[in-house]
Amino acid sequence: MSNSQRLEGKTCIITGGSSGIGAATVRRFVEEGAEVLIADIALEAAEGLARGLGNTVSAIRCDVRLEDDVRRVADTALRRWGHVDVLVNNAGSELNRTYDQTTVEEWDRVLDTDLKGPWLFCKHVVPHMVKAGRGSVINISSLNGLVGFPLSTAYGSAKGGLVVFTKDLAIELAPSGVRVNCVCPGVIATPMMERWTDLMPDKGEAQKMLRGVMPIGRMGTAEEVAGAIFFFASDDSALCQGAVLSVDGGFVAQ
Ligand code: NAP
Predict the structure, then answer these.
(1) What is the mean pLDDT of residues 118-123?
(2) Among 30, 37, 160, 203, which one is most buried in terms of CB atoms within 10 A?
(3) Is the CB of residue 91 below 6 angstroms from any atom belonging to ligand 1?
(4) Atom of ligand 1 nearest to the CA of 190
(5) Is 152 in the pocket of ligand 1 (CB under 6 A)?
């Protein structure tokens, strides 16, 4: 629990903020004094979270794959606040499938949610940040974007693409005062991870295997990832531009 109010007065859009890492980030940002707009396909859950956190948080339905939805979120935020300080591209969709069994629909769902969505949000929010000469974009990738795994060609391609997108945009925007950085979580206990273990023939074994993936010997928590996202939202990361921060209990250090 933090009450440092380091984001006081900051206006923030968090995509996929109704669940898991996104929800923990919404809570952390609100504790730190931010105003938050949750943009999520799961509107009821997002509204429920917002209601419980008070009047500095609200929710709006958005499918990050659709440009009209993204434009509506950007317009709503700008009408309300006049400026967006922080954009967290967190909404994500996973797939565990061999490359040859992946359907075109599955490939498009994952690439559109995990890569096109962040680009669309940048397209509609970042120009306003550039005009203001300030802003922080935080893209949520994955360790799947840094190293190879079996059954991960669609998800890994999207998350790897997001790492490079982060670096490219960071360089393009470097003189503007807008920062773009990326967080790569390891194995984190969230509903997404729960769905993955539900698909396994032996859920207990799958959970045990996941606990062993990270050198620290346990899964991470959504709050631990939210702490890294908060760092990039705060002025403490003022010199970070195109940084890719692994939050993975030592996985990519091996
Ligand atoms: P989560 O609990 O499933 O939350 C993801 C949220 O995004 C959900 O509210 C989901 O809504 C929403 N969403 C999905 N598709 C969307 C779309 N097209 N438009 C708008 N919202 C959409 O997942 P999480 O584990 O917190 O993951 C958050 C991010 O971290 C994702 O980008 C994920 O890839 C990344 N990540 C997670 C882990 C992990 O171990 N958990 C590891 C590395 C990276 P629905 O619930 O209705 O689908």
Answers:
(1) 99
(2) 37
(3) yes
(4) 25
(5) no
Q: How many CB atoms lie within 10 A of CB 236?
A: 11
Active-site residues, by number, are 155
Nearest residue by C-alpha to atom 36 in ligand 1: 142
What single letter denotes the amino acid at residue 235?
Answer: D
| pLDDT tens string 231-251 | 999 999 999 999 999 999 999
pLDDT at residue 3, as a whole number = 61
Question: Reading across the β-sheet that carries 86-89, which strands appear in turn?
Answer: 57-61, 35-40, 11-15, 86-89, 135-140, 178-185, 244-247
pTM above 0.85, yes or no: yes
| Ligand 1 atom with the shortest distance to the CA of 94 | 34
The residue contributing the CA closest to ligand 1 atom 33 is 92
pLDDT-derived band at 4 (thresholds 50, 70, 90) equals: confident
Question: What are the structural domain ranges in the chain?
Answer: 11-186+221-244
Instruction: Supply the pLDDT for residue 154.
Output: 98
- We find that the CATH architecture of domain 11-186+221-244 is 3-Layer(aba) Sandwich (3.40)
